[in-house]
Amino acid sequence: MLIIEMLARNSLLYGSEIALVEREPAKANRRVITWKMFDDQANQVANALLNHGITKGDRVVLLMRNCLEWLPIYFGILRTGSWAVPLSFRFDAETIQRCTEIAEAKILIFGEEFVNQINVIKDNLSTVTRFVFVGHEELRPCYAAPYDAMLVSGNSESPQIEIDGSDSAALYFTSGTTGNPKAAHITHGNLEFACHVESRHHHQSHDDNFLCIPPLYHTGAKMHWFGNLLVGARAVLLKGVTPKWILEAVSEEKVTITWLFVPWAIDILLALEKEELRLANYDLSHWRLMHIGAQPVPPSLITEWKRVFPGHQYDTNYGLTEATGPGCVHLGMENMHKVGAIGLPGFGWETRIIDETSKLVSPGDIGELAVRGPGVMREYYKNSQATKEALQDGWLLTGDMAREDEDGFIWLADRKKDVIITGGENIYPVEIEDFLQSHPKIKDVAVIGLPSPRMGEIVAAVVQVKPGQELSEHEIDDFCKNLPKYKRPRTIIFGAVPRNSTGKIEKRKARRLYGGETIDG
What we know:
Layout: H1 3-14, E1 18-24, E2 29-34, H2 35-51, E3 59-63, H3 70-79, E4 83-86, H4 93-103, E5 107-111, H5 115-121, E6 130-134, E7 144-146, H6 147-153, E8 168-175, E9 181-187, H7 188-202, E10 209-212, H8 219-231, E11 234-238, H9 243-253, E12 257-260, H10 262-273, E13 289-293, H11 299-308, E14 313-320, E15 325-330, E16 344-345, E17 350-354, E18 367-372, E19 379-380, H12 384-390, E20 391-392, E21 395-404, E22 410-415, E23 420-422, E24 425-427, H13 429-437, E25 442-452, E26 456-465, H14 473-479, E27 491-494, H15 507-514
Helix pairs in contact: 1-2, 1-8, 2-3, 2-6, 4-5, 7-8, 9-10, 10-11
């Protein structure tokens, strides 16, 4: 049963029950929709898109922060047979333009937070025939149609477009180490499989309630929610993240499952330790599972979490956009004795660890982790070379180096690619290196990740100043204000950039020379 069919079924079975809750604590706002409202709105979006010329196989960009409209729009796009193209809300205007051009999108649906970016690029988007604005009317640019009017223009009956599991469903943009966006081409069958993986791992029932905090453009957030979709269970979308807001949501909404990034879990524990929050002030009796993904998880964090929340189940989830989100490897709630490992092959998945010639390494040796299963993407859209490198005989090469212990549990050793993961977000060093290299006083630069207990890693820049020049950390910080905040180096190190005989930066050597100290993020 495809996910669009699951939604229709939930509307029939649980139509009057709440499907989604949106909480915005900063504005004291709470909104809800039932399963029938969710299903009706998805149909209205689908029919409105069809009325505006969208046909099966077209692409529709979705650029919004988490809100109650996000998922009905996403499902509406899928019901037309067109491809949903969710974009990161961290993308700058240039990247939004590049991704939209790769997708050859016909319609771009965007939230009020992105007006400035779209204003800059709208005249360059030659394939886009219509812009749709979601937000307060006073902020709507004149060239964009209001979302509310779009809903009214489409009826709430199913459009009855014939779709099967082999049909294309979405393009999810990721990036390689160069930072150039690559579009993982996902099918309806991939999405359906993700529902069953999540359900098998975390045993959702109709009585569960999932707290969704990560951004919905991220495959991890939606694909964990898919376990609830499968059984018609409620979910809460939390807009804004503080320990207080998380505990309030769990308490007041009777949440049973949360998926956290490492920094959020650390912040909750610190707030409790400092007595800024007190557990006695919240009803957390329904909270059964806390699981973490998107970055390496310090075992000490989970030890402390279990001390504070002894009744919680815990799981680590490892996944990739190219594998339709989390779940190709997971620890398993019953395997607390292996905390630190990413775990075992997920439901329906196979794993192997290989050397550079694609041969299996010996048990215990480090090699590249490869995965195979029904969640593997079809391709990198319009990127045959990247597809050839990543997909080999049905196996997806993850780019992560790992080893397998005597019990079959997989442990990550290092990333083959030099991606820095900070707070669950991927940062690509070459982008920052290229930017810093344009500074007139900088001769050479290498960007590396340094360990941070809170963020997983933070961005550090090793800067080699031109002879005869003087350059301060303050000057570099000021220069980097032209970068998005999350990409700005948190640490500046003045020193020589190690390069090998072919001129390539030796990132491992740089980390060894400059990255021995753990940084508090």
